[in-house]
Amino acid sequence: MASSQDNPKGKAGKKVRVAMRRNRGKPGRISDWTRRTRESDGYDLENSRSEQVTGKGDVSRRRTVTLKDSDESAEAGLTRGTVIAMRGLYAEVDDGQCIRLCTVRRMLRTRLIKERHPVTVGDHVQFKAESDHQKTGSEEGAIESVDPRRGQLVRRVGRRIQTIVANVDQAIIVSSADEPPPRPNLIDRYGVAALAGGITPVICMNKIDLDRAGQARRLLDRYAELGWAVVRTSVPSGEGIDELRGILRGRASVIAGQSGVGKSSLLNSVQPGLDLRIGETIKETGKGRHTTTTASLIRLEVGGYVVDTPGVRSFDMAVVPRHELEAHFVEFLPHIPHCKFPDCSHTHEAGCAVKRALEEGRIHPQRYESYVRLYEERPDDRG
Predict the structure, then answer these.
(1) Number of domains composing the chain
(2) Range of the domain at 340
(3) More confident residue, 108 or 176
């Protein structure tokens, strides 16, 4: 176990659970109380009514150790890896040599019980290989710890928070010019969630060949004016595919958007040979079919990786506090200091500089509508 002498700078190492050494087996239970009472003069039974019993399971025969970064693999027997997919209660972990199907320790699930998944795609984890254990089934390891996350896309599912992906640099928010038609409010929800999670949003307008009236191009130009990166793509014509490949090159990305907008088709075009399953839009409803059912991490030949996520028809972005929402609408920022009230919500107050900018055409009505809808969904977090 690491000591203060091993860590001269006084920095606390990481605490992990490791198996006990063999000489730390469970002690035998005391069963000869009568003999001990007779042999011990004045033996006080009243003060000896308890005994310590060690649990019998493999999980209970573990101890907590504090390790320095350089000691983790050698001393604790842990291997580092990246979660590339979640399969129910199991995680597929790539350690650079092979892909292992790992369980998640119960103590880790308990510590993160408020989250829908304590481990998600993109997580950097440390796991204990269990190929030498006498286990049944297909388990090949057990995740002991998850490194601190950065760049995560988060949403609310029911009463719990779900981290869709972690440790990414950018979110490719895919919409389509038609079939299905673009949904600006959903784009805004993804954009706010990306910014709140420390991720750079990139708007991709796919099926641009169907934009006969130019409406999708005008929508895309609106986001470009906000300073967001944008790209127009078409799989049949190949338009924008090289540009999208360049955006993905060497970066950690997540691709997200409405069902049926062509996320899997885009990835198949960016990297031929992936053969991701694709679906068609349901003509009766104009909505897309769900073809991607779980998030998965895909290594790119041009460098970096992209996480393909299931399509959604709604996105509950209920993780940004109400009073912080304005900060994620960049066009509001120049006007907020000029509002009459310091706690202006920009929804109903007199003397609101944001509403005045809206009336003067400096803020687009659809963006303002997205803000109001998101604001009204959030609980009053200021008491």
Answers:
(1) 3
(2) 322-377
(3) 176
